[in-house]
Specification:
Helix 1 runs antiparallel to helix 2. It contains five helices and no strands. By secondary structure, it is mostly helical.
């Protein structure tokens, strides 16, 4: 259940942050995306794929020990691979810009996971205190 919760949190948070970043870039006229339904679906599938592989990596001991860096590399590989798959192009200038924005989104997702874990820790500690008081 814990893995499913992480999967949902990663997918929802990353999708929301990607859409927000793209909306800001479009508003500032720094992106040529229009966020039509096909592009939104592509973004969702990319976020879903990244979440899926990040959660799968948690089952492999080596990657579990290095989860932050391995999930970061998975995110970069899938995002760049998806761009090549959907648009049949790869430009180094786009790559570096994408890495910057993906890093911001990645840190945002990890921050949300951290907040969720802190909330769970606080709840567990309160339950332990209640049991100890009895």
């Amino acid at each position: 259940m814990k893995h499913f919760k992480y999967f949902l949190t990663i997918t929802c948070t990353s999708f929301t942050l990607v859409i927000l970043v793209n909306t800001v870039l479009i508003a500032l006229q720094l992106s040529d995306l229009s966020l039509n339904p096909a592009e939104i679906f592509e973004i969702f599938m990319i976020c879903l794929s990244i979440s899926f592989f990040s959660v799968i990596m948690d089952f492999i001991p080596f990657f579990r020990d290095h989860l932050m860096i391995s999930s970061y590399l998975i995110m970069i590989i899938i995002a760049i691979g998806a761009e090549y798959f959907f648009y049949q192009s790869f430009y180094w200038s786009n790559f570096f810009i994408q890495v910057i924005f993906l890093t911001i989104i990645y840190l945002g997702v990890w921050f949300c996971l951290y907040l969720d874990d802190e909330k769970n820790i606080e709840y567990i500690n309160k339950e332990i205190e209640k049991r100890n008081q009895k």
